[in-house]
């Protein structure tokens, strides 16, 4: 993995479509520091935007054709605005087309015109770092400007979520798009998923001599199928059994009572316990960052990982190995980040321990017979913006 340094999107645009784009926009992937599977439970999350970005070069057309192409390869994908009716699409173009459909729903389809778009992204695909949300958000800020929609960023978050839920088919929450649209350098986004309030919280990693190491296990996951949706169903079942609108509104005493009197089975009880305790950990992490700084949050990251592994059961052996190796090499805390079932682990490390931790993870993976991981550090970075 290497961070974006040049504008390959414009080069592809010119090679594919001729001439210059009307503009270039970009949006970052994200790491979630803490607060996993809390977003669709109306809870709290604390992600930050990273220095890996999706870049789109875009030019309006004077007809209703939409043509998209990516440096990742494959033929250009072409459609018409009329054809974008919210139906499922299975290629990467779903992230762009889903945004077009959602913005048309929000602002009226008569506001839309055709366009050409070239994408270049260095957010690793399938790493649990929101490569899809970064494409959605870069597209959303580009089209908002080119179509003069004047949309609030919070409404672009919801457009991205609807694109994901309806056109991609993944029943995800609002965390990833919020991080990508509201990220700021050196800060995390403290997100209240019920109100959509997004408040920057200074991280101060650099001054504290800390780095965030990301280990991409390259174990692929797909939130449009399987485990993610079943976890969401468990949470909704638990909220119904507890008689609350969302798990945000329950506490551990309510939960224990529902388990004891038989309203909840043991598995649903544990799933809900993860969410309720994770919300508490997010709030505690924000308080700790503000009062004591980033060196004091390690135990909360560790507790979050244990809860995801044991109660929510979304970790995999490769993630657990990465977490253990980073901790043994001096991480203050380490955990799975993102939706789980593969993807990435993060470790919060003193800068001088990064090389040792990287080597330790590689050795642990080799010893266990796992495939080679992708390992990089990331920095809290600005959100979606116009670049050119
Ligand atoms: C994925 C989803 F897209 C987010 O909405 C969130 O639920 C996350 O998994 C888990 O915290 O990234």
From TrEMBL:
EC number in record: 2.7.1.6
Domain of life: Bacteria
Cross-referenced SUPFAM superfamilies: GHMP Kinase, C-terminal domain, Ribosomal protein S5 domain 2-like
Domain GHMP kinase N-terminal: 95-183
GO cellular component: cytosol
Pfam families xrefs: GalKase_gal_bdg (PF10509), GHMP_kinases_C (PF08544), GHMP_kinases_N (PF00288)
Gene Ontology MF, one: galactokinase activity
PROSITE patterns: GALACTOKINASE, GHMP_KINASES_ATP
Keyword Cell membrane included in the entry's annotation: no
Enzyme class: transferase
InterPro entries associated with the record: Galactokinase, Galactokinase_CS, GalKase_N, GHMP_kinase_C_dom, GHMP_kinase_C_sf, GHMP_kinase_N_dom, GHMP_knse_ATP-bd_CS, Mevalonate/galactokinase
Protein name, per record: Galactokinase
Taxonomic source organism: Labedella endophytica
């Amino acid at each position: 993995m290497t961070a974006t340094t040049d504008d390959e999107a414009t080069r592809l645009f010119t090679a594919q479509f001729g001439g210059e784009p009307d503009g270039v926009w970009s949006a970052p992937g994200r790491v979630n520091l803490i607060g996993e599977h809390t977003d669709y439970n109306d809870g709290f999350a604390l992600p930050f935007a990273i220095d890996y970005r999706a870049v789109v070069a875009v030019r309006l057309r004077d007809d209703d054709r939409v043509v998209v192409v990516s440096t990742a390869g494959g033929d250009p994908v072409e459609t018409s605005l009329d054809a974008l009716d919210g139906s499922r699409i299975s290629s990467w173009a779903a992230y762009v087309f889903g945004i077009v459909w959602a913005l048309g729903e929000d602002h009226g389809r008569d506001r839309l015109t055709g366009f050409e778009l070239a994408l270049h992204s260095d957010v690793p695909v399938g790493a649990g770092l929101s490569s899809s949300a970064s494409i959605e958000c870069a597209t959303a800020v580009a089209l908002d400007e080119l179509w003069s929609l004047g949309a609030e960023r919070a409404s672009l978050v919801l457009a991205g979520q609807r694109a994901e839920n309806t056109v991609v088919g993944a029943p995800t929450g609002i965390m990833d798009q919020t991080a990508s649209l509201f990220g700021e350098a050196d800060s995390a986004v403290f997100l209240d998923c019920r109100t959509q309030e997004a408040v920057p919280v200074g991280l101060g990693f650099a001054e504290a001599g800390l780095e965030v190491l990301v280990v991409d296990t390259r174990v692929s996951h797909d939130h449009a199928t399987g485990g993610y949706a079943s976890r969401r169903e468990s949470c909704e079942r638990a909220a119904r059994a507890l008689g609350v609108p969302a798990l945000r509104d329950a506490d551990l005493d309510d939960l224990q009572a529902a388990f004891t009197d038989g309203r909840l089975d043991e598995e649903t009880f544990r799933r809900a316990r993860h969410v309720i305790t994770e919300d508490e950990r997010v709030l505690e992490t924000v308080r700790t960052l503000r009062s004591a700084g980033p060196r004091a949050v390690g135990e909360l990251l560790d507790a979050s990982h244990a809860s995801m592994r044991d109660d929510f059961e979304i970790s995999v052996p490769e993630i657990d190995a990465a977490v253990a190796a980073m901790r043994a090499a001096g991480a203050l805390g380490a955990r799975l980040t993102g939706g789980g079932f593969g993807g990435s682990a993060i470790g919060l490390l003193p800068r001088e321990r990064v090389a040792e931790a990287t080597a330790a993870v590689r050795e642990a993976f080799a010893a266990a017979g796992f495939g080679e991981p992708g390992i990089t550090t990331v920095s809290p970075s600005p959100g979606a913006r116009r670049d050119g």
